[in-house]
Amino acid sequence: MSEPFIKPFTKAEMDAMRATTRDEEGLKRRFWDKLRRVAGRIPFAEDLVAAFYCATDPKTPSRVKLILLGAIAYFVLPLDAVSDLLPLLGFADDAAVLAAAISQVASSITEEHRAMAREALGEAVSKAG
């Protein structure tokens, strides 16, 4: 079975992700700020937040954390293959990157991570509204 084609990141995207993931507190802050702004417009919000909780869980293996933090960094970065301001298409690239990351580490995202995500999304949406 062949692997599906996934567009490689540009050098600028890779440099930005490295810088973003080195500053974990900054990444967390930017993640929650952006999520509050867009949570109601993205259908993959629960998966994204569950991935965040998995990536920040001390029990999660380093390899899994790295994969998920890369996808989360792509979500928060202002550099995007498709601008988040475009209706319908704006978050398509973010969803694709997240889906690719989750497909690699799905067994590490627990029901506990998902429950925390549902709770956090309820709070984020109520604060944004």
TrEMBL record:
Residue stretches making up the DUF1232 domain: 64-99
InterPro entries in UniProt: DUF1232, UCP031804
Record-level GO cellular component terms: endomembrane system
Cellular compartment(s): Endomembrane system
Highest rank taxon of the organism: Bacteria
Topology versus the membrane: Multi-pass membrane protein
One Pfam family from the record: DUF1232
Keywords: Membrane, Transmembrane, Transmembrane helix
Species annotation: Microvirga makkahensis
This protein's name: DUF1232 domain-containing protein
